[in-house]
Amino acid sequence: MSLSELHQALKSGAVSYVHPCGSGGIAKELERLGIVASVEVPDGSSGPSTCVLVRSSLEEVELRKKFTAPVCNYYS
Predict the structure, then answer these.
(1) Helix or strand or coil: residue 75?
(2) Contact call for residues 51 and 26 (beta carbons, < 8 A)
(3) Distance (Å, rounded) from C-alpha 8 to C-alpha 32?
(4) How far apart are CA 34 and CA 30, in angstroms?
């Protein structure tokens, strides 16, 4: 997700929380936050903040329409 798109998401209220993922990967960041994923999470590096975990009140389909970044729902 680009920084401008992320900023717009926060400003619009579509996203209420952002957590960048780094070299530990998505699974490591979910573990650090104490979140148990409802589906299998890819293991491995996410690179230096190449993706973010977000909290949103929007349904996954609405997030996909709103943003160009890929959307994956790991928590239901």
Answers:
(1) coil
(2) yes
(3) 26
(4) 6
- Tell whether the torsion through CA atoms of 72, 40, 16 and 31 is positive or negative: negative
**The three-state (H, E, C) secondary structure of 12-73, written as one string:** HCCCCEEEEECCCCHHHHHHHHCCCCCCCCCCCCCCCCCEEEEECCCCHHHHHHHCCCCCCC
Q: Are 53 and 21 in contact (CB under 8 A)?
A: yes
DSSP 74: -
The pLDDT tens digits for 19-60 are: 888 777 888 888 888 888 777 877 777 666 567 888 888 888
Helix (H) or strand (E) holding 1: none
Q: What is the β-pairing status of strands 51-55 and 17-21?
A: antiparallel
Which token pair is 20? 């960048």
